[in-house]
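job 3f2a | input accepted
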Amino acid sequence: MRCRADVFTVTCVCFVVLDGGASTEKLAAAPCSPQKLTALTRRQLSSTLTSFDKANGKHLGTWSPGFPELLVHHDSPLLGSRVQCSLVFMAGGLQEILEDQRTNLNPEDLALHQKLKDAASTVNELSHCLKEVLGGECRPKPRPPKIPQSVFERKQWSHTLLEEAETYLGWLQRKIRGQIIRYKDKNTFAHMKATYKRYLEGSGYMV
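job 3f2a | predicted structure (207 res):
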């Protein structure tokens, strides 16, 4: 959009953001900093996945059933209730992986255990933060993640869950950033519009 007077030009740049159900004002002003917390959680998941693959072997492939609770598309809306359900499922999955690593597959890898524990804790913290910002209740709650029986399938299941959780957090991070940009751009546009109006009033272009 371009607003033009004879001797003064204001150019309004609008960011295109996919629509969602979030309150952009709350996201921008939230005391728990959802943008930073989402970025931290994603970094933790990425680091945990690297450590997991180092301990359990690389090239495990993908658990073919996947995890619908973590599946999102680029244009999926940012809805508080769905986010809550995804994070509840994610935290439960991390706890399941932690128990399997601690009691079965890698009982001596204390560093991996700690990373999984920290990641689950941060996911829960993120869930509380976004509940304050986005609202929404996870109802009904997703079924608790259930790890397979065979050793290889457990490793593949865990690897895929960690991978899809990191991907989901990447989507969430982009959606939150986009909503905050949209809120800030709205305020900037309002300020520019007021400045332009004052100019017109002072220059005699308005009657």
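job 3f2a | The helical segments are 24-29, 34-56, 80-105, 110-134, 151-203.
job 3f2a | closed
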